[in-house]
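RECORD TYPE: inverse folding
INPUT: structure tokens
STRUCTURE:
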């Protein structure tokens, strides 16, 4: 195990989060290669009066790292696909793109999101809102076991039988309760996958939004649609529909027929696709960059409010269709999501007052904004309390007692 302090060359690079707009003034950085290293890092932190925050790559970093040893787990790179059991076992450093490539060779999917470079572990600890969650639930619902180092430094395997309370908390409650070194989770059959993006000029937004609302009103759980309002520097406004469908191409195209014939179509990448290529749909950046985001859950979609003003200086405003399995009971800390839509707004700090424009858009949507947020959608300044129902938060805080040395990006107990 290597430990870097501010006096060591490479420290600033080692502490850097994925979002370059977030500062991480940590006390030290430990780079682990296995569970023994994780336990050693925990012992080092205890001896030096520090807490430990684990990050494979720094996605979701909040900057809440005062008095923290930053534990880098990218070196825990175990990846095993057991196709007969439909199980994947992955180390804490494995990214979703690696899982999809390996599982896809067997016609299997994991419950991945939009980016291939997000770590499976951090994403899953925060719930994991997937392209396929309408059919199969959050990624955390698919977990069968966690390998962890506990707050007292012991290695343990956590399942629903061995420690039901900790297993419940790790499935969507964040990284506050144990240092996860590996996860085993269920994979799902996907003999056919259809997906891609349709892109129009921005003046067609009302028509595209109307078609989006029509399709999502009674879409089968195999179909997921995300609406994207886009305004990139130097380009005119655009609107996109991103889609995946777990099934045959002909059925997908029939379901998406309300989008056909809308004028102003710039491109259409929809096609049968390899599971390994899932990340190409939104083509998100795969290198660290600065950004300011805000997420919300919506009880309804108010088209007039959403289109009341241009999105600039934001780069994108995304509406995700939820529902299906997400709304059904879940024995996890993430719990069910009753809201039918999620809103995600993003901009870069140099473009203007991004946070102010995000507030304006949220305010315009009024009481359609419920106030709850998916844990993985929390912005750096937002507390974990916004992600949980009151009884869930109370249970998580009780479980946190005695585990104070471990700190999530968004701790369940606010300072």
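DESIGNED SEQUENCE:
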């Amino acid at each position: 195990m290597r430990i870097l302090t501010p006096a060591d060359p490479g420290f600033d690079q080692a502490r850097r989060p994925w979002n370059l707009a977030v500062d991480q003034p940590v006390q030290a950085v430990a780079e682990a290669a296995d569970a023994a290293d994780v336990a050693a890092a925990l012992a080092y932190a205890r001896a030096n009066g520090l807490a430990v925050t684990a990050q494979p790559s720094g996605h979701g970093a909040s900057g809440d790292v005062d008095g923290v040893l930053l534990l880098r787990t990218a070196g825990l790179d175990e990846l095993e696909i057991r196709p007969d059991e439909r199980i994947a076992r992955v180390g804490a450093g494995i990214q979703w793109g690696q899982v999809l490539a390996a599982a896809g060779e067997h016609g299997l999917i994991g419950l991945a999101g939009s980016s291939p470079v997000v770590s499976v572990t951090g994403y899953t600890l925060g719930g994991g809102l997937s392209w396929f969650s309408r059919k199969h639930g959050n990624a955390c619902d698919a977990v069968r076991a966690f390998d962890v180092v506990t707050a007292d430094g012991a290695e343990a395997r956590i399942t629903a039988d061995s420690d039901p309370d900790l297993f419940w908390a790790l499935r969507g409650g964040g990284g506050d309760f144990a240092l996860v070194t590996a996860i085993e989770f269920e994979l799902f059959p996907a003999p056919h996958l259809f997906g891609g993006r349709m892109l129009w000029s921005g003046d067609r937004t009302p028509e595209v939004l109307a078609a989006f609302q029509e399709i999502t009103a009674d879409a089968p759980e195999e179909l997921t649609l995300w609406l994207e309002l886009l305004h990139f520097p130097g380009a005119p406004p655009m609107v996109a529909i991103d889609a995946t469908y777990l099934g045959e191409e002909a059925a997908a195209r029939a379901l998406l027929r309300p989008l056909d014939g809308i004028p102003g179509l710039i491109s259409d990448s929809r096609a049968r696709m390899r599971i390994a290529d899932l990340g190409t749909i939104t083509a998100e950046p795969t290198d660290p960059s600065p950004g300011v985001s805000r997420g919300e859950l919506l009880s309804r979609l108010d088209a007039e409010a959403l289109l009341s003003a241009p999105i600039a200086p934001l780069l994108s405003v995304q509406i995700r269709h939820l529902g299906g399995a997400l709304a059904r009971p879940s024995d996890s800390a993430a719990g069910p999501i009753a809201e039918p839509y999620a809103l995600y707004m993003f901009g870069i700090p140099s473009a203007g007052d991004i946070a102010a424009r995000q507030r304006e858009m949220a305010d315009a949507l009024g009481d359609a904004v419920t106030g709850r947020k998916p844990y993985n959608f929390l912005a750096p300044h937002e507390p974990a309390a916004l992600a949980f129902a009151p009884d869930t938060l109370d249970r998580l805080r009780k479980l946190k007692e005695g585990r104070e040395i471990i700190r999530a990006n968004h701790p369940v107990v606010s300072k």
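NOTES: The chain has a mean pLDDT of 97.
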